[in-house]
């Protein structure tokens, strides 16, 4: 199954279960270091998938649930990390993907 299929299936399940959302909180994360056993491209792709790609798709797929439905406003919250500002010698892709949220 392509990665987007699971994300979009989850969004469809949420839509089937609730008429509206007050907020979406993105807290999924992985602390994957650069490693000689994994290509840099694969590490970066994995980090971007978890921290940027999946939240982006979910935000768009669930936008109708966030609008209206009695809520004056809704929130989309992305957890980031202090490593975005200070950096990390062993978690460069992690820091870059978290920085993409800012």
Automatic annotation (TrEMBL):
Protein's UniProt keywords contain Oxidoreductase: yes
InterPro entries: NAD(P)-bd_dom_sf
Keywords on record: NADP, Oxidoreductase
GO molecular function terms listed in the Swiss-Prot or TrEMBL record: dihydrofolate reductase activity
EC number annotated for this UniProt entry: 1.5.1.3
PANTHER family: DIHYDROMONAPTERIN REDUCTASE, OXIDOREDUCTASE, SHORT-CHAIN DEHYDROGENASE/REDUCTASE FAMILY (AFU_ORTHOLOGUE AFUA_5G02870)
Name of protein: Dihydrofolate reductase folM
Upper classification of the organism: Bacteria, Pseudomonadati, Pseudomonadota, Gammaproteobacteria, Enterobacterales
């Amino acid at each position: 199954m392509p990665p987007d299929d699971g994300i979009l299936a989850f969004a469809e399940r949420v839509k089937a279960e609730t008429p509206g959302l007050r907020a979406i909180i993105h807290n999924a994360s992985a602390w994957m270091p650069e490693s000689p056993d994994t290509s840099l491209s694969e590490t970066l792709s994995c980090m971007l998938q978890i921290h940027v790609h999946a939240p982006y798709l979910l935000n768009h797929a669930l936008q109708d649930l966030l609008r209206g439905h009695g809520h004056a406003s809704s929130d989309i919250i992305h957890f980031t990390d202090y490593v975005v500002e200070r950096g990390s010698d062993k978690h460069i892709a992690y820091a870059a993907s978290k920085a993409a949220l800012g």
